[in-house]
Amino acid sequence: MDFQFTEEQLAVQAAARDFAQSELWAGVIERDEHQKFPAEQIKKMGELGFMGMMVSPEYGGGGMDTVSYVLAMEEISKVDASCSVIMSVNNSLVCWGLEKYGTEEQKQKYLPRLTSGEIIGAFCLSEPEAGSDATMQRTTAEDMGDHYLLNGTKNWITNGSTASVYLVIAQTNPELKHRGINALIVEKDTPGFVVGLKENKLGIRGSDTHSLMFTDVKVPKENRIGEDGFGFKFAMHVLAGGRIGIAAQALGIASGAFELALKYSKERKAFGVEISKHQAIQFKLADMATNIDAARLLCLQAAQDKDNHVDYAKSGAMAKLFASKVAMETTVEAVQVHGGYGFVKEFHVERFMRDAKITQIYEGTSEIQKIVISRELLK
Ligand code: CAA
Fold this sequence. Notes:
379 residues, alpha+beta, Butyryl-Coa Dehydrogenase, subunit A, domain 1, Butyryl-CoA Dehydrogenase, subunit A, domain 2, Butyryl-CoA Dehydrogenase, subunit A, domain 3, 3 domains, four-stranded antiparallel β-sheet, three-stranded mixed β-sheet, 9 strands, 51% helix, globular, binds acetoacetyl-coenzyme A, flavin adenine dinucleotide binding, FAD, Cyclohex-1-ene-1-carbonyl-CoA dehydrogenase
């Protein structure tokens, strides 16, 4: 593995850090408290090229590699994980999926607006009874000749009300099981498509998460992604890359909380000295930093595998599994280092702790990552 970043990768990292530090801190507590979608911030992120980083310039993207994407995701997540999940879904799931498997018409139609931040996208796989067991799709896409008739409900959809383009996974031929599933592009204003209530979440509260209802929604055949029956494989491929983005998000949450804990430990005094002079705190800081560095290496390994066209299902799942654990542990410790201050909102670490939890759940729980890893090992 080459640990030397290129000048371009370093420039992307610096730009993301600069943007996050100067534009995301302001209002982050209020956005979290009031579940306020970061509309202005996402628009700016689109203008700066963070919403379609890996898409080819031909479709308005940045043409960057996955390593650059990981570096940017970490920096944005160090301040506001709500912004980074919106960014991650748009980049890894929607834009990447469309560019890799979409038709030329689909790419031309959607990618330039998705990459510029003019619109955002959503990825709709989870259902009331199909989260981890993704083959159990109850949403149906009945083949009506020139179109599909979409019926069903999706749950916990990131960008649920703010998206304009939805990639919806649905069952067309139940007898074919996962080989009968399709992925369809559904536009927001299509008749019969209703956005349900917004979820009141523990963390990433600035992002909007909704259930979606489809009742006899007519989706033209040209909106199908890939061949008939490719939908489940499409979802698996897209999620394999998405996990690298969420691993980088978890890494950023951990490093953001760590940086605050480190700073606080040098300011706060107890028993006559800064608390950083106490070994109890030093040990915590050492553990946090070691785990974060290890998580970063796994994230970069997975990103590099993807950039080198090496199978990244295992390395991406390992990165997500480990980084999300580190995010959870580090943020809990960051609250502990802050003592009573850590328990109040002004000091940010309680928000990082709440945000960390979702990284062990979405785009496959930690248990699902272990299934993916062990399957690769046992192949
Ligand atoms: N890449 C490509 N193909 C894959 C694959 C991968 N990583 N994993 C499985 N497949 C293929 C298999 O090869 C198989 O194809 P064939 O039958 O044609 O050979 C097919 O998919 C079915 O495979 P399995 O029998 O192994 O499937 P399974 O039912 O046992 O489940 C699973 C596999 C990995 C557990 C899968 O169901 C899974 O990933 N579940 C978690 C889903 C998930 O991440 N949900 C999160 C929702 S999205 C989200 O959270 C977004 C957000 O808001 C941020």
